[in-house]
Amino acid sequence: MTVATRPPAGRGCATLVIGGFAGLYPAVRAARLSPTEALTAV
């Protein structure tokens, strides 16, 4: 029986994409708001 594994580079790329999206999406949303709205939107 063999177990198929993905190469480590694929895992690293997936981590960067997911982490980038998780970090950039809220930052872009907050940048569009005024500072007081951004603080109260939490």
List its salient traits.
42 residues; mainly alpha; 2 helices; 0% strand; rod-shaped
Task: Describe what this molecule looks like in 3D.
The mean pLDDT is 83. 0% of the residues are buried. The protein has 42 residues and is mainly α. 71% of the residues lie in helices and 0% in strands. The termini are far apart. It has one domain.
Number of discrete helical segments: 2
Secondary structure category = mainly alpha
The global form is rod-shaped
Proportion of residues in helical segments: over 70%
Strand tally: 0
Structural domain count: 1
What is Rg? Answer: 18 Å
Portion of residues in beta strands equals under 5%
User: N-to-C terminal Cα separation, in Å?
Assistant: 50 Å
Main sheet: strands, sense, barrel? none
Q: SSE string, helix = H, strand = E?
A: HH
Low-confidence stretches: none
**Average pLDDT reading:** 83
Layout of strands and helices, then pairs:
Elements lengths: L7 H24 L3 H6 L2
What is shown here, in short?
By secondary structure, the chain is an all-alpha fold. The protein has two helices and no strands.
